[in-house]
Structures are given as C-alpha cells and as structure tokens.
Design a protein that fits this description.
434 Repressor (Amino-terminal Domain), 9% strand, 2 domains, two-stranded antiparallel sheet, coiled coil
Length: 134
Amino acid sequence: MEKEKVPQDKGNLTQNNLKELVYATDENGNYTTALSTGWEPKTIALSNSIEEINERIAEARQQVENGEVSPICYFMEVNKMDLTILSSYVGLWKWRVKRHFKPAVFAKLNDKTLQKYADAFGISIAELKNSKTI
C-alpha cells in the first residue's frame, strides 16, 4: 500500500488518540513506516472478537453462579486463556486442569494448587474462591 493511501478510518484507536504503525511504500517504491488511526474492516473484526469474548465471559459467570463450573473457568475466560495456555501457566496436565473445572473437585483443592491458579490469573486465593468477586 502506498504511504498516501494508508487508511485513516475512525476505529478503536481514535478513542484514545492512538495510532498504529504500519508498513507502506514511499514514492520510490521502498518500504517505510506510516501511522494509521484505523481501518474499518479491522475495526469491525476487532469489535466482533471483543463482543464474542464478552459473551463467553458472561456465560462462564452464569455457569459459576449456577454451580455448573468452578471459578477457574470464569477467570480463564477473563484472562483470554484456553485450556492449553492455562495448563502451561499452572504447570499441570490439561486433563487435571479440566477436572478442576468441576465445583466439587475445585472445593477440595489445596492452597498450593489454588496459588498456582491465583498467580496465573493475577489474583489472590481469596478472590479465586469467592464467587462474589466475579
């Protein structure tokens, strides 16, 4: 894309007066950098992704409140993690982490294991255990 044609559409970045660094070609055809305030298709895709994430967080919150899953599921969604990422952060096999999604199993976890989850989520054990913080 030519430097003069770098999109300057209103997007998520314009709300905070931010600009994104992009690569473009100058008048000689050489690559250079340019600043862009946004590009409509990218803004739409990003908005859709954020909306989907928020829906997943709300669903996880409801499942915790209904006693269907443990708070680990909720905090995993809030932190935009999946099972593979979370298991690597806490140093446990995926099947064990998935087992901890069960409220009955979660209730029996020791503080050492809970601390691993709390550290991964950047919260305290008390916040992890207290579903009212959700």
